[in-house]
Task: structure prediction
Amino acid sequence: MAKYLVTGANRGLGFEFSKQLLGAAHDVWALCRDPEGADDLKELAESSAKSESSGTLTIRKGDVCDEESLKEASAGLESLDVLINNAGIIGQRETKFDDICLEQMAQVLDVNVYGTIRSTRVFLPFLKKGADKRIVNISSLMGSISDNSSGHYSGYRVSKTGVNMLTRNLGSELGELGFTVLALHPGWVQTDMGGPAAPLNATDSVRSMIRAFQAKTVADSGGFFDRFGKALPF
Ligand SMILES: NC(=O)c1ccc[n+]([C@@H]2O[C@H](COP(=O)([O-])OP(=O)(O)OC[C@H]3O[C@@H](n4cnc5c(N)ncnc54)[C@H](OP(=O)(O)O)[C@@H]3O)[C@@H](O)[C@H]2O)c1
Result:
């Protein structure tokens, strides 16, 4: 079974990835900013320890804005098969260009774009020793330039366009080493970020995403896909 590392694993899609991957007997390193307060992860660790069919769950502190914390989180890790760069924030939900707050935008870029760079940089040496060599960047259709007909959410949109570009860059740089680097759109999902009006629950979104990214190969590297694995326009 494979070894996965998930950032932002204490709630929302990150928690659901951890739960479903463990249930499929994979080992999961779940990173979160506050392991002490991560009650759902702690409960998952207890239940998975009692189940013979479950993988093992390792909970570590990891803030994608603090590279040192990611390095500390890697202590004891020997190799890694799949990195899921999931941690993200939406930031300001502005509706007018004049209202854009650059401080809030900088924070969104720090988590969503630079955070993806930090965690990929720290965990890449471990992925190089792994069998699968897969990086899954959780992006958003809101980062698609050609799909954007409504505007708003400038910080979030720019950040996810950046995640898509990083995915393409890494895909071409790491392709010859056998890496599969993907940007995935989860759909609009009921999480703290997506809100209760979202049409999709986290269980279904994550189940589809896992199936989609596991089916991709190095030939798909650098691509942007929906949760069913269908290519999306950049
Ligand atoms: N929900 C949707 O409809 C939707 C749609 C498209 C894309 N996405 C993307 O899916 C991913 C997960 O979103 P979600 O819906 O699950 O959101 P969420 O419920 O708001 O969860 C966000 C997660 O990111 C973590 N996080 C935030 N800042 C962090 C940092 N500096 N370091 C480490 N972790 C950090 C949060 O941890 P704390 O608890 O410590 O804050 C939390 O675990 C994001 O990348 C998001 O952009 C979501």
